[in-house]
């Protein structure tokens, strides 16, 4: 079955790298994972894609970001980061964010490796200073 993004979420996602767009689409539709078999569709809202200088510095000033402009992956065009939340959103429901993290990682694994070449996916939920909504592409370097 799957889910659809709202127009606001779609517009935010459209500011992101095409691989992040593909990833969120995979999360919404579910399907078959090469590693775990069937993947359940997971409904999300996109709360941030590209973030300009004023928005980034405001996020830094209020403690919502640890980085000032232009150091965030949100500050690139296309954005190399996306912030998503489970829909409906309950910021106190950490288990829902953890389930979303699992769904996103499974969706990443479902994207053919040939399409992910040169990139790794990092999730803020795996960091010491947790940032559950944050997913970013990291360029892999060839040694």
List keywords for this structure.
alpha+beta; about 20% strand; 5 helices; about 140 residues
* Beta strands, count: 6
Multimeric status of the protein: single chain
Spatial sequence of strands, sheet with the most strands: 3-4-6-5
User: For the residues shown, what is the average pLDDT?
Assistant: 94
Q: What does the main sheet amount to? A: 4 strands, antiparallel
Give helix % range: 25-40%
Per DSSP, what share of the residues sits in E-state strands of 2 or more residues? Answer: 15-25%
Give the overall form. globular
Radius of gyration: 15 Å
Terminal residue distance: 42 Å
Strand pairing plus helix content: what structural class?
alpha+beta
Walk me through the structure.
With 143 residues, the protein is of the alpha+beta class. The chain is 34% helix and 20% strand. It is built from five helices and six strands; from the N terminus they run ααβββαβααββ. Strand 1 (31-33) and strand 2 form a beta hairpin. The radius of gyration is 15 Å and the shape is globular. The mean pLDDT is 94.
